[in-house]
Design brief:
With 180 residues, the chain is α+β, with helices and mostly antiparallel strands. It contains one helix and nine strands. The strands form two sheets. It has a five-stranded antiparallel beta sheet with strand order 1-2-3-4-5, with helices on one face. It has a four-stranded antiparallel beta sheet with strand order 7-6-8-9, with helices on one face. The longest helix is centred in the first third of the chain and has 54 residues. The chain is rod-shaped, with a radius of gyration of 31 Å. The model has no long low-confidence stretch (mean pLDDT 85).
């Protein structure tokens, strides 16, 4: 007969099972933390995209609202379905407003387009506001008499009442002269 000792302890199998369970818990926690890190990066990228869109919209609204109407002989605003060009009052680096030329254009590359803003004040600066657009076009509100009249072209001496930038299923309405 074998005798048992009264020493309390774990068998080798019990220790190995405990280590295996602990290892699985640590591996699960590591996978969870990695997934949380990836989601945090995705949320940060989405937040940056939303901030860029909001800043672009604020810049566009400010430029269109500050349209310069000082020229009597030439149209102050010329636009078609692919873009617009106009004179505006732009913020200068020293803090005051100065004359600048603004060009909004849809640059097409195959099936996709990008929305670009060029401001010449006096050095040209180009900002790509949106890219990889499948459908995009400009429309111009020219009359609000009995019915709203929108057109694809604007080159009158009087600028349009509003500019609509239609991007896929979304429309950005920009009021001219701050008429929003």
């Amino acid at each position: 007969m074998t005798q048992r000792s009264d020493v309390a302890g774990f068998t080798l199998i019990e220790v190995m099972v405990a280590l295996m369970i602990g290892g699985m818990a640590v591996a699960g926690a590591a996978a969870l933390l990695a997934a949380l890190g990836n989601r945090a990066e995705a949320i940060e990228r989405a937040g940056i995209g939303v901030d860029q869109d909001a800043n672009a919209e604020r810049l566009l609204r400010g430029l269109v609202a500050n349209l310069d109407l000082s020229s009597d002989s030439a149209p102050s605003f010329v636009g078609d379905a692919n873009g617009a060009r106009f004179q505006a009052w732009c913020e200068m680096p020293a803090g005051w407003l100065g004359h600048c030329t603004v060009r909004l254009s849809l640059e097409r590359r195959g099936d996709l387009a990008s929305l670009r803003l060029q401001v010449d004040d006096p050095r040209p600066s180009v900002i790509e506001l949106r890219r990889d657009l499948r459908e995009a076009r400009f429309r111009y509100l020219i009359s609000v008499d009995d019915v709203l009249t929108w057109t694809d072209r604007s080159s009158h001496l009087v600028p349009p009442l509003a500019v609509a930038l239609i991007v896929e299923r979304d429309t950005l309405l920009l009021g001219v002269w701050g008429s929003e």
